[in-house]
Structure formats: structure tokens, C-alpha cells
Amino acid sequence: MKTPWINVVALMLLSGIFLSMQPAKPAYKLYRSDGTETPFDEMVTALLEADIIFFGELHNNAIAHWLQIELAKSLYTHDSSTLIMGADMFESDNQLLMDEYLKGVITERSFENEARLWNNYKTDYKPFVTFAKDNGLRFIATNIPRRYASLVHSKGFEALDSLSDEAKKFIAPLPVSYDPELACYKNMLDMMRPSNHANLNLPKAQAIKDATMAHFIAENLLPGSRLLHFNGSYHSDNHEGIVWYLQQQNPKLKIVTITTVEEADINTPDSAALSKADFILMVNELVTKTY
């Protein structure tokens, strides 16, 4: 016996109602540091008051990379004349290559062959550079050349004194301030000590990266501009790292931070996560990684 068409329609309607009652499974949520969930657009409005915005990422987190480029687009839409971009994934001695590529002096192929790009550049960071190129934006390669960070790791800050004047152009001015009691450096060393292989220079290598990024951010922050910086979250969490160095130089800077955290339950952020930044991108830990 055939089912009357009216019953079929009723079943379809009931199925639709049932599906609409299923709980949503969001991949991420945004929170303020006080635990208040906030829409993306409200976060953007708050960020428009900042001189510098740090978007701390987990390097293989696809949601963070997607939201980073969406944030850049939103800031550009609100005020295209003020936006500058920068990232710790690009080293300062590649700034010339970056500038030449953005201005069309060299090809994309030349840039990608000659710059020391991360293995996940094409999937995770190329969209940033392409956006800057398409819109005529400046993009700052802020990080220290890795060979000099490695030098500090093996021989300490003193090894930088032997560099040539040309080489010193790519790092923070010497001598570099360093506070070993700053939590981001102290904790790094404390985590190593139980293994009896603690290298006192490890946090110094981290500090020279932070100091160098702060230096090039400050150097390129033009009056009336807004700099959006992408970096590993550890470099800006708890307003330490790069943020600490910038505040030593200019405590009047308006700095806002975002961090990325992965959790099994993104509906109940804990106090440890909320304390890391002004805004917290809480991502479901099961979201596929980019590598």
C-alpha cells in the first residue's frame, strides 16, 4: 500500500524539526578574558582601538589560520589606510625579498624559492602574503634569522657581539634586556630541569626572538597605523615575550592580544586559558590539523 503524499510531507517536516533540535557542534568559540563569549564582529570593534594586535596561534591549527585572514580582511574593510601586517614566520633578513615580491619586482616563484619559508607556508601563511600583495599592504618580516637565534642558544647573548655591523641590522639593538624571572622564560627553563639537561641559553634564544620582533614592530609602526602581527602564541601569551619588550620601549602603546587554545569542551573555558590574552580563540581539539 502506497503512503499517501500528505504523510510523506508530514514525515519530512518532522525530520526537519528533529534535525533543528540537535545541538550545534561549533568548531570554535571566542571569549574575552573575563569569560564572556563574544561574537567575531564585537572583537573586531574592540581591536580597532589598538595600535598593535597580536594573534597568537598554534602553528598547525586550521581554525586559527582561517580566522587570522578573516581578521585581516575585517580590519582592512574598516580602515584600509592604517593596516600593516607582520609575522614571526618570516625572518628579518628576508625583508628585501618580501618587499620586492609585494611590489611585483620579483615573481612569486623567485620569492618562494629564495625566502626561507616554513614547510606549511603554502597552506597556512601564503594567504596572508597574498592578501597583503593584492591590497598593497606592507608586510613586515619580524623574526630574527634563525642562525643568530641558534648562536644564542649555543653560546649566549655574548656571541652576538662578534657579529658584523651588517649582521646586527637584522637583530634587536645590543645589549638586549633580559629578565630570567619573566614567567615565559623561567617556565621554559623549569620544564627542562628535571631532565638534567637544562640549557640556560634556551630561554635566551627565545628572548632574542621576542626582542627582535618587538624591535621591528616598533620600527615599522607608523603614526596612525595599526599593526596586525601573527606569531606562535607563546611569544605573546600573558602579555609577555614580544609584548613585554614593546612595553619596555613604549608603555603608552595600546596592545591587544589574542591566543589560541585547544580544548575538548569549548563551552567551559578554564581560568588558565582565559588569563593568557585579552581574547581567547577556543578551538575543539578534534579539528583537523594542517600537519
Helix content: 40-55%
Counted by DSSP, the helix tally is 12
Structural class: alpha/beta
What's the total number of strands? 7
Radius of gyration over C-alpha positions, nearest whole angstrom: 22 Å
Kindly summarize this structure in a few lines.
By secondary structure, the protein is of the alpha/beta class.
Question: How would you describe what is shown here?
Answer:
By secondary structure, this protein is of the alpha/beta class. The chain has twelve helices and seven strands. The protein has a seven-stranded mixed sheet with strand order 1-7-6-2-5-3-4, with helices on both faces. α4 (about 95-100) packs antiparallel against α5. The longest helix is centred in the C-terminal third of the chain and has 19 residues, at about 200-220.
Any descriptors?
291 residues, 16% strand, 12 helices, 7-stranded mixed beta sheet, 7 strands, alpha/beta
